[in-house]
Amino acid sequence: MAEVDGEFTAFVNERGAALLRVAYALAGNQHAAEDLLQNALAKAYARWPRIRGDAEPYVKRILYHDQVSGWRRRARRPEVPLAELPERAVTGEEDTDLRLLLRDALRALPPRQRAVLTLRYLEDLSVEQTAALLGCRTGTVASQSAKALAKLRQLVPGLDERTSRAEVTR
Amino acid sequence: MSTSLDETLRAAVRELADHAGPAPDLATRALGRGRRLRRRRRVTAAGAALVAVVAVTLPFVLFRPRPTPPPTTPPTAPPVTVTPSPAMRPTPGADWAGKPLVLPGDWVVIRAQATGGSGSGVLLDRGRGRYFTTDRYDGIFPAPTGSLVAVTQEDRPREVGLVDTANGRTRWYEVGPALSAPAWSPDGRRLLFTTQRFDHFGFVVLGRDGARKTHPVDMKRFLCTDYCFFVWTRDGREVALQQTDPNRPRSESARHPRRGVQLFSADDGRPTRFEPMPGDPAGPWSWSPDGSLVVVQGQQEPLLVETATGRVVNQLPTADAVWVTDDRLLYRRPHGSRDFVLADLSGRELVRQPLPKQLVDLEVTVAPR
Q1: CB contact under 8 A, B114 and A102
Q2: Which tens digits make up the pLDDT trace of A81-95?
């Protein structure tokens, strides 16, 4: 038991910060991110003897699955809380301004859409890899990406004008 | 056109992730939760009964808010006020958990939990008149009245537990596979589940005594696409299912168009009537007390709608609103801002009540006082 606890603690100390980044991108705030990650780590601990050599991918899978299953349970109702978005149009000043607006808008996305974008842009997974990890079809990944983009365009006026329209739903 | 949308989006996602603050005791907390999980699994594996596992201790502990840490996100622009100067109530003090948190319109906060329903939650014990916390369950769903709390655990996906906070007794009941989260009837006597089994779509009604009735619903006859889930009506006699408009185009990038809701008897599952409305009601409190109006999430906007005709009266800031009287709505400001507001039917804010800081980032459930 002490050996398991020691290994597990060492794993969390080493990889906790990186996993928390993923959890934060998924959950949108510190409290929910820590909660999501603790839940995933607890499940990893309960199965540690079987997953000890493959713990990080296991924890990530749990993070994403918990996020998506939470989405299924709640249907469309709650989105991650955030303050009101600034009511200013993007007029071509700084890329930083746009990213700030986008970052706040990301937090307003439904969890499943944010999960897809996190896998694609934080983890750099392909559509196929994203679909495999989420346990859905590639078409679902594409449709969730499209919905996310539509919502971001709604929340960030002038998004397309500030950026070139590189394909993001492929 | 400085950078591609793809690159900008990638940078924004990474910046969002970079906002994760330090979590110094993560390993310790995860160890604690992991040990509890392992113990639960062992008990389950040892043959926990299908029904009626009785606990004798109250699974909740007093909630004592800790001092609020500094914000982990940068300040954003002040909320946009759409109406002139609503009356502002003060933010509850540090001892707020010692009594029911009363909102404008005389409703109270009965539950707060992290989005996703996992982890520790805050719960109003009406009998003791104060808030408790628990991290034993993945979902906690207090009844809108009385002392019962429905609880769920991810490792018991076919079951629901009913905790009676009056005596600490917990009973687990088998409900079935592929269940939605439970939804209490407005009188707190029955629980409603949507069951999404392939070719077995329908709803399940569970009584407080564990009596269960499953009612299959023919999705071809009562067409529902996109998000489909049953909700109670305000009188608790019927349940409503969203009905897709088959004559309008549907896209995966938008909510599907609705023509109304089909109602079914909660007692025997028989279809009773149809109410026209261009969107989805969020729950029983979406209907006005006299039933003449309903708040729905339209394809684009939250809408106030006449139930007799389906006519849209006006838009509203959010669809997650409850009617507290015939002409007053209570809702959390859109996008989870920290305030609850009492508003008139046009969305004009009349009274604003800030939440305690500990609840700001949580999903909050309210009920009549």
Answers
A1: no
A2: 333 333 333 334 456
